[in-house]
Amino acid sequence: MNKASAPVDDNESNLVPRIRRGDEAAFELLYLAHHDELWRFAYAHVRSRDVAEELVQDVFLAVWGTRATWEVNTRVRAWLYASVRHLALNYLRHERVVTRTTGANARAPGGGAWEGSRASVAIGQTSGSARVDATTMGTPPTDPQLALEAEEIDQAVVHAIAELPERRRIAMTLRWKHDMSSLEIARVLGTTPEAVRTLLSRARADLVSLLELARH
Description:
It is a single chain. The chain is mainly α. The chain has nine helices and no strands. The chain folds into two domains: about 110 residues, Rna Polymerase Sigma Factor, Chain: A (Orthogonal Bundle), CATH 1.10.1740.10; about 80 residues, Arc Repressor Mutant, subunit A (Orthogonal Bundle), CATH 1.10.10.10. Helix 2 crosses helix 4 and helix 6 crosses helix 9. The protein is globular.
């Protein structure tokens, strides 16, 4: 399928019954709307372009393969992110076991026992002074100097986010990069919106400190 982005209304719940009826056009809309952002999210976990692609494909293949019984009790986007994260964590656990038992040389991203076990995985089971604001999220300035400064700020924020503890990093990435609500992030992380708000608050405080250190 063509992976060009396709605008889809943020409320995609109407696609679920269409996909359950076998509507390929509805399924393609869902795929085109979310493939790229899900790939980036998967890549942030597994750090392999090929494995990230496989994980995303597995999620969509599972959706289509079980379409007749597909149930979504939250927003579709949150369900997709939770499913990708679930598979990514399973992949990472598998890789750690392989590394411990056979050594790093035996690792083969996307292959071996992982390749045979992916299809059986049940996806979608989720129970200061430095300002971090819209400066880094809006349309790039047309002035070259301002554009360069905006890009430098953006890169500094990206690097700082990468230094955060895992759950804070994921929460901040979903909020900043993917504009998810606290409820959606909670669905992805398997927690509550209140806990997400706490994670985001702590993450912002950490970012302020990290960005201050980067300036000196």
